[in-house]
Amino acid sequence: MSAAGGSAARWGEEQRRAARKGVWRWLLAALGLNPAARRADARAAQCDAGAIGEQRTAVLLQPLEAAGWTVLHDRAIPGARTANADHVLVSPGGRVFLVDSKLWSGRYPVHAIGGRLLHGREDRSQSVRSILYETDLVTQAVRAPVQPVIAMHNAPVDGGGFIVEDVPVAPAARLVEVLVGNDGPWSPSAVRLAATVTRVLPPYLGGA
After folding, report:
1. What global pTM score does this model have?
2. 161 located within any domain
3. By CB count within 10 A, which of 5, 81, 160, 177 is most buried?
């Protein structure tokens, strides 16, 4: 099983190394004179934050595994060139959930206005579009309905959670509550569905 946050961490490190490839680039970067290295470091920092968020989410999801849920981390999505699924879960009720971890600054709240996801004043609606795109592909791959959820670390979430474009946005601390609350009664098809999901969504081996 692939580790949560593994691909994000790898991609960030690859960015840092690529910008410093060769003695001359490395020296310029060490002197603070390599703009490409600065840009790569900024992208890598975002990847590092993403990896930390995924790792924190994985810890929060551990009790569900003990309760009979199938919990998969960092999975490849058939049909997606670079996108990966942070966390995919199959519940005892035979429900499939796609969880996207976010670790955003705690200085600004996360809220929705007019169908847009905002972090303070910054429009983060691309995050919603991305998880909806991934959800469509995962739905096609597993041939079952998939419910997307955004789990938010650090940044306070307006109202303790809300829905934007049919995607629940929940504080990470409430993620398990949201997942369990959206499960149904036990289904005999859950084991078979979990096996299918595990098979068609293999561990992601590419970059973030």
Report:
1. 0.79
2. yes
3. 5
